[in-house]
Amino acid sequence: MSTLEFSGWIFGSxxxxxxxxxxxxxGGGVVIVPVLTLLFHIDIRYAIGASLVSVIATSSGAAAxxxxxxxxxxxxxxxxxxxxxLGALVGAYLTAIASTHVIGFIFGAVLLYSAYASxxxxxxxxxxxxxxxxxxxNLQGSYPTSHGPECYVAQNVPGGFSLMFVxxxxxxxxxxxxxxxxxxxMDRAMRLPFKVSTTTSxxxxxxxxxxxxxxxxxxxxxxxxxxxxxxxxxxAGSLTGTRILVKAKVKTLRLLFAGVIILLGIExxxxxxxxxx
Length: 277
Fold this sequence. Notes:
This protein is an all-alpha fold. Helix content is 74%, strand content 3%. It has one domain (3-273). It has helices spanning 3-24, 29-39, 44-69, 74-94, 100-119, 132-136, 157-174, 179-189, 194-218, 224-247, 251-273; strands at 140-143, 150-153. A two-stranded antiparallel ribbon has the order 1-2. It starts with a helix and ends with a helix.
């Protein structure tokens, strides 16, 4: 396979990863890292480095559209980024200690959990009482619906903040946006509307990835020849995904995405245990 053909396959895979990542808020890294590792036999640390660059591109592409449409809550996202950035630095530091087999196994487990999280339906909760801490920090907003703007106020701020630290650590260690944990924290713990959780997660993953990308770059794990087609592909896919999410119901796509990453998660765990990573 020539260099041009190799880059073309990488680009095509990245477009799909960016599309699925933007639709679900889980980030394209959960797809592109196992694809690069298992299909193209690229060292997992270089795959993670390329994924971090692509995650920044995903966030840049998707977040702008979501903010413009009124879905992302920038204030909530930046507040929670305090926790995710600290976690990302801790996770990136741990990559020098953990072996590729351990990283691969953890990645597979995170993929399986991401599939579970993406298939869970969002419960229609009763209206929650105003949260004093959230109101003090102004962690509230509104988002467009078919019936007009709908207001919301965050709940359980300490619980969501703690889960965001875990999300950041996973991002730094595994090179993903760790959107599953971010969406879980906002959707389940903080009781934000699902579309707000998903779009705000897309806004946040780029900041989290940028915190750990510098460490991967300093260690030589970011290859420009690999990162460039991955970044361009994920960016193209994420821009397409934003247009689909705003207008379409994504339940079928989320189930399809869950099925894909279940297979990838099992494959990653198997190869880690077999010593192939």
